[in-house]
From TrEMBL:
Family matches, as PANTHER family: ATP-DEPENDENT (S)-NAD(P)H-HYDRATE DEHYDRATASE, ATP-DEPENDENT (S)-NAD(P)H-HYDRATE DEHYDRATASE FAMILY MEMBER
Record GO biological process: metabolite repair; nicotinamide nucleotide metabolic process
Family: In the C-terminal section; belongs to the NnrD/CARKD family. Belongs to the NnrD/CARKD family.
Name the record gives this protein: Bifunctional NAD(P)H-hydrate repair enzyme
Single GO term (MF): ADP-dependent NAD(P)H-hydrate dehydratase activity
Catalytic activity: (6R)-NADPHX = (6S)-NADPHX; (6S)-NADPHX + ADP = AMP + phosphate + NADPH + H(+); (6S)-NADHX + ADP = AMP + phosphate + NADH + H(+); (6R)-NADHX = (6S)-NADHX
Biological source species: Salirhabdus euzebyi
Free-text cofactor note: Binds 1 potassium ion per subunit.
This enzyme's EC code(s): 4.2.1.136, 5.1.99.6
Binding-site positions, (6S)-NADPHX: 57-61, 130-136, 141, 159, 316, 367, 434
Positions that bind K(+): 58, 126, 162
Keywords on record: ATP-binding, Isomerase, Lyase, Metal-binding, Multifunctional enzyme, NAD, NADP, Nucleotide-binding, Potassium
UniProt: AMP binding residues: 404-408, 433
Function: Catalyzes the epimerization of the S- and R-forms of NAD(P)HX, a damaged form of NAD(P)H that is a result of enzymatic or heat-dependent hydration. This is a prerequisite for the S-specific NAD(P)H-hydrate dehydratase to allow the repair of both epimers of NAD(P)HX.
Amino acid sequence: MHIVTAKEMYEVDSHTVQSAGIDGKILMENAGRAVATNIEKRVANTCRILIFTGSGNNGGDGFVIARTLHLRGYHVEVVSLVDEEKINGDAKFHYDILKKLSVPFHFYKSENQLRGILVHTEAIVDCMLGIGVKGHLKSPYKEVVGQLNKLSIYKVAVDIPTGIPADEGVEVKDGLYANVTFSIQYPKITAFLERYASYYGEWVPLDIGLIPPIKPSFVQTWGRNNVQATLPKRKRFAHKGTFGKGLVIGGSDEMPGSVMMTARAALRSGAGLITIGTTRQNIPAIASYVPEATYKTVDEMDFLSDQYTSVAVGMGLGRTEKAFSLIEQVIRQVKSLLLLDADALYYLKQNLSLLKEREYPTVLTPHAGEMARLLGITTERLLLKPFTYSKAFAKEYNVHLVLKGPFTIITNPQGEQFVITNGNVGLAKGGSGDVLAGILLSFMMQGACLITSLCNGCWIHGASADHLIENGRYSKYDLLATDLMEGIGSVFHTFS
């Protein structure tokens, strides 16, 4: 599914009207009817619904919604936050139709007036402002949104909650908290930002027949259907070498668990052969947990001499001079796919130029704090524009970037971006990232397109957590990273 900026959405609207000749009034009718139909699924027709409208196309959608619900037996009233002379364009066309019906219509005058209108209201529909918001709300929108947020009634936002920008990088403080947002055709970027996602509530895209330009360069979500279509198939006569030979380097004497989880997750995810490079002291303990792996000590200077399909480094490796020397050796010498995680990312802060020297694909898997450190900015600043920062970094350093979080953003060196939306807060535990690194390593080894492999791996990781909790085996409190290995197999089983 496409995710768009405000500019991209305007371009889609314009392309649909100009290339296909579909009148804007028809698109507004389609949008309003689609929203009304979905409101019917969530709000009983005995409820009193108040629809708030502004002057633009979002307000025009509201007039269609009001008319449609009224004709379907709902008690609907409309509150316009602008005077009649400010309603124009396609919205004016639908306003004139609505005026011919017996739908109570109010022009906003004051907060006291609104309090009286809100009495006995059980649901509201927000059609006040659309995707053009650039800054803080002004009067009367600020007062109306503040008043509505205090009410414990069902709130529906159309396209985007009033006060919330469509694009990254815009910092606002006032916005309507919706229970559900019906996104017209495509969700907007801010639905996938930690700062603004809670304003949307549940978001539901509604197809109204818009026609995107040929080969649009939009951000896209990656979901179950994408995984099912691209998951590597296992041929009958395949052998362990068919599914790659991987090396996992990590695990200091004090932190052996990380590399254990990464290696085991890789094997659970279909890797053919896994070698663990760690300290000699760690091998006996790790071998009892991952007996399927082979082992090399990182003190053996030739441990990189074998030809590995993919290599992962950094999990629990530590931040000593010896560890940093090893990481540099790996970055310079590995002539295959390379995944850098955890302590390897810490090392990179002062050595980013090494990435530009590599001739083979490189994957970085930072969480927001690690990414902010690489960029030399605060985490708060990163989270205001994660798509923009990720794209710029991936292009500059010619890497594939997996920015981990509630919405994981995957970017390739060409700037293509995908978002993974599954997973849950049960993943907020130490070791979850180590498991993800193992899943990603495994998919990297299995020969598919790299961006596809990374998207599939991230989705499998989130689906594992979701499956374990939805089936009652664990809760969001007690789920551990090691439990995710059980969920991986269950997720694969759903595709068989």
